[in-house]
Each structure stands twice: as C-alpha cells, then as structure tokens.
Amino acid sequence: MNKFSSFDQPVMMKIDKVIDESVGTKSFLFKHKLDYTPGQFIMVWLPGFDEKPFAVSYLNDDFFGITVLERGKYTKLLHKMEPGEQLGIRGPFGHGYSIPDNIKNGNGSVCVIGGGCGMASVTVLIERLSDNNPTVLMGASTGTSLFFKNRYKDITLFTDDGSEGIKGYPTDALEALHNKHKYDIIYTCGPEIMMAKVFEFCRKHSIQFEASLERYMKCGIGICGQCVCNGQMVCKDGPVFDLQALSNMDDFGKYSLLKSGLRVSLKEYGDWRSC
Ligand SMILES: Cc1cc2nc3c(=O)[nH]c(=O)nc-3n(C[C@H](O)[C@H](O)[C@H](O)COP(=O)(O)OP(=O)(O)OC[C@H]3O[C@@H](n4cnc5c(N)ncnc54)[C@H](O)[C@@H]3O)c2cc1C
Ligand code: FES
Questions:
Q1: What's the CA gap between 258 and 227, in Å, rounded?
Q2: Which end of the chain has fewer CB atoms < 10 Å from its terminal CB, N or C?
Q3: pTM of this prediction?
Q4: Closest CA to 115 of 94, 145, 93
Q5: Tens digit of pLDDT for each residue in 12-70?
Q6: How many angstroms is it from 122 CA to the middle of ligand 2?
Q7: DSSP 3-state of 253
Q8: Which protein residue's CA is at the shortest distance from atom 10 of ligand 1?
Q9: Per-residue pLDDT for 272 more than 50?
C-alpha cells in the first residue's frame, strides 16, 4: 500500500471503524497508510458542510485515525457518522514534533503532557518515544472525559474535580517529577494556559520544550492568514513550536484570532482543548 498524502484537494476515504473513547469523544479509523510526522495535522472535509483540522491519534502500517471531541455543529455531525460513510482527507500539513539527537535511540529523559483532547496530538509521539520510557501525564476536567488511559502502561491521570486519578493539573506535579527524572525535553499539547505554564517551567529550568498550538484554521496551507500568531503561520510554521520560537510569540498563552480575524484574549476565544 502506498503512503497517502494529498495537499491540494481532499481524497474521499471510507470510515473503517468508529471507537467510543470516552463521554463525547470518538475515534474514526481509515484503512489507509499515511505519511505522517507526530504533531502534524490533516484537514477533514464533511461534504457540504465544512473542513476542519485534526491531529492523527492512531497510526500504523495499515491504518490511521483521528480522535474527535464533540463540540459544535461540525463535530456533532461527525459523531453521527458510521463505518462505510466517507470523509474527505487533505494533508498531512505543518511541522510536527522533533526528536533532537540527545533524545534519539532511547537516550534522554522525556516527559509528555496531554491536556483534554490535546492528548490526541501526542499519542503517536509517545509510541515513537517508547525506547525513552517517557513520563506520560494526562489531565481532563473529569474522569469521564479521560481517554487513552489504558493505552500506555505508565500514565498518570489528573482530573480538575478529583473524580479519577490525582485531583489537580499535570503542571502541579512537574517540579517533583523533574527533581526525580531530570527531564531533557518536555512535549505538550492541551489548553494553551496549561502549555504556557509548562513553557515557563522549562524556561526556568533550561529544559528543551515543544508545544502544539491551536489557532482557528481555514486553508491549512499558509494562504488565508487566519491562523497567524505574531508573524508565524501556525498551520505552516507550526503547529509545533519550540521554546525559542515561542519566546518570540507574545500572543502565546494570551491572545488568539476568532474566525472573523478579531484578536481576543484566550478566555474569550474559548479553549476547545479543555474538555
Ligand atoms: C492543528 C489542530 C489540531 C486539532 N486536533 C484536534 C483533535 O485531534 N481532536 C479534536 O477534537 N479537535 C482538534 N482540533 C480542533 C478541532 O478542529 C475543532 O474542535 C473543531 O473544528 C470544532 O468544530 P465544531 O464546529 O464542532 O465546533 P465549534 O463550535 O465551531 O468550535 C468549538 C471550538 O473549536 C475551535 N474551532 C472551530 N473550528 C476550528 C477550525 N477550523 N480550526 C481550529 N479550531 C477550530 C473553535 O475556536 C472553538 O474554540 C484541532 C485544531 C487544530 C488547529
Ligand atoms: S489556516 Fe490559512 S494560513 Fe493557516
């Protein structure tokens, strides 16, 4: 099977399998090989309705999949789709996570933090880093929103309300974990406020850092300018940025652009990743 990639137009693909991951979260699997670097995204077209960006959360030689939190109109329609129905897939796009030389081949101490449905963006990365035996932390608002909790043998769960795992946020545990494991790199994807806290922690302790940013996307290929963040096209230059790049992006952790292009605080933007 050839590896799939299509940059200019969606290719219709049949949904092979639908998995209920948690309350409000479903995965959609496609029997196609995908040429994908962890952290990149694909555009998923619901014919006659809209096209939206998603990370790839399942990847092997025979299939790939996305994991979708039900939010607004588009994801509600997506959640109604069944095996045999078709979606248009374009991509993959953007720059994914890098694995620096000091981390390759199982070297180096690694921590991966997923918040809410941001966990979908780091799953394939965690699998690529299996030789490093990374510390995996996942946070969600409540126990029923946690997913992939049985996918990794060492995963520490956090919930805001304490209904499952440790009560609180993954960031609460970072200081103690770093004292023990002396991390060389921390990767994260989740609510931007959480990622900004991890960024500050890494800056303070001189730890390498990579985060996947979410901005409203329309074209996904650097044409419309909708996803711009301090001069960086998140769809093309990101969505994954390292500590140095983020140090020059003043809007990170503070502002985002609405679909209209209006720049608003993150609170107003409504952080879709905090499930
Ligand atoms: C690089 C990237 C990867 C993503 N990966 C995932 C994923 O793996 N799983 C997942 O559940 N969601 C992911 N998303 C978000 C997903 O695209 C939105 O949740 C989805 O489009 C919401 O559509 P809606 O109509 O159901 O909700 P709406 O009510 O339209 O929006 C709900 C929230 O989603 C955001 N959103 C809506 N449309 C877009 C868009 N075109 N681009 C970016 N954000 C949008 C809105 O700003 C809002 O905060 C990703 C977004 C980006 C940018
Ligand atoms: S989504 Fe159009 S430039 Fe990034």
A1: 9
A2: N
A3: 0.94
A4: 145
A5: 999 999 999 999 999 999 999 999 999 999 999 999 999 999 999 999 999 999 999 99
A6: 22
A7: coil
A8: 68
A9: no
Domain ranges of the chain: 6-93, 104-269
42 Cβ inside 6 Å of ligand 1: no
Does pLDDT of 275 surpass 70?
no
Confidence band for 3, pLDDT divided at 50, 70 and 90: low
Query: Can you tell me which atom of ligand 2 is nearest the CA of 218?
Result: 1
- 161 CB burial (10 A radius; 0-12, 13-18, 19+): exposed
At the top level of CATH, the class of 104-269 is alpha beta
**Residue 130 amino acid letter:** S
Structural contact between residues 33 and 1, judged by C-beta atoms closer than 8 angstroms: yes
Distance of CA 237 from the midpoint of ligand 2 (Å): 10
> Regarding the domain with residue range 6-93, which homologous superfamily does it belong to in the CATH classification?
Translation factors (2.40.30.10)
Indicate the DSSP class of residue 170: G
